Amino acid sequence: MFRFEDPIYLWLLLIIPVLVCIRFIAWKQRRAKLKKFGDTDLLKQLMPDVSKYRPAVKYWLLIGALALLIMMLARPQMGSKISHEKRNGIETIIALDISNSMMAEDVVPSRLEKSKMLVENLVDNFTNDKIGLVVFAGDAFVQLPITSDYVSAKMFLQDVNPSLIGTQGTDLARAIDLSMKSFTQDDKIGKAIIVITDGEDHEGGAVEAAQAAKKRGINVFIIGVGNPKGAPIPDGHGGYMKDQSGQTVMSALNEQMCQEVAKAGSGTYIHEDNTSSAQEKLNNELTKLQTGETNSVIYSEYDEQFQAFGILILLLLIAEICISEAKNPLLKNVRLFKKK
User: Which of 42, 136, 174, 208 is the most exposed, fewest CB within 10 Å of its CB?
Assistant: First the structure.
């Protein structure tokens, strides 16, 4: 698979048609000036060493070199192969709360950013496991289908923010239900749903959803993020969100609800604060799950291809230098640029 790492540079290719237009206008003007000097056939006889095609060839060689240089700046890359491997691991779906309350800063730098760090560290500890990502607030959708491509998992995680879902709230039931449907059909492998939330504005049905997951052999873990005492929610403009009466909205971690859902899903409730203890507890719990053989599609790393473009540029420039605009008297009978 061929791709460009920095495709923004490809916009510079728009320079090519501009230069071609300038060349065409200059050629038209030159022809018009030559016609003023006299008959075209007579001028050719008076200038026997002038080549009609050599300047054009030299020009197109330079244009080709410029186009290749621009593409080289865009860092062309190519993946060498795709392989299928069998691995022993577990399947994990991360259900990440992205409601506005997750922007509270009682956990540094914020509840949401701390949660994303936890997921990144979790991915770093995975070796033979599969991971998927579901984001939710008042609604839920799959941000990343279950995969063993950890690089993609981190990339999709970076784009997560509250603006992805317009419906506010914390619909845990919807998130758990969607996560259950996101696993593979393999029933011989440990499966876990890790819900990361502050439990604010809980809409009900989460305990029943966790029980349904338990019946299907899926453990539901709850990571509670935030302070039970509450914290204000930044509004993105240097202040804090306020209610209709003008009072600052305080968002508090609903630990009781989180504990109930984790218990119903045969999982564990873990409180995420400003320490690393939650990460350690979660890793310990996941190691208890049954591992099974999974089929994974492995994409090889992309190889840089700028060297090939550099060689082509060098060859074009050498050819342009070697071709003179005037005809070579020693090769006057050799017609490379004109039909006989």
Answer: 42
3-state secondary structure of 78: strand
Whole-number Å distance between alpha carbons of 142 and 165 = 12
pLDDT by residue, tens only, the chain of 340 residues = 667 777 888 888 999 999 999 989 988 887 777 677 666 666 566 566 666 778 888 899 999 999 999 998 888 877 655 555 555 678 999 999 999 999 999 999 999 999 999 999 999 888 888 999 999 998 999 999 999 888 889 988 988 999 898 888 889 999 999 999 999 888 788 899 999 999 875 678 999 999 999 999 999 999 999 999 999 999 888 899 998 888 998 999 999 999 999 999 999 999 998 888 888 899 888 888 866 555 555 555 566 788 888 999 999 999 888 887 766 555 555 555 555 4
Q: Does residue 141 sit in helix, strand or coil? A: strand
The CA distance from 100 to 35, in Å, is: 74
| Amino acid identity at 42 | L
- DSSP-assigned states of every residue in 6-69: -GGGGGGGGHHHHHHHHHHHHHHHHHHHHHHHS-HHHHHHH-TTB-SSHHHHHHHHHHHHHHHH
Residue 3's CB is within 10 A of a number of other CB atoms, namely 13
Amino acid at position 164, single letter: L
| Alpha carbons 162 and 205: distance in angstroms, whole number | 22
Question: For 262, left (φ over 0), alpha (ψ -120 to 50), or beta?
Answer: alpha
Query: Identity (one letter) of the amino acid at 152?
Result: S
Q: Mind spelling out the 3-state secondary structure of 202-235?
A: ECCCHHHHHHHHHHCCEEEEEEEECCCCCEECEC
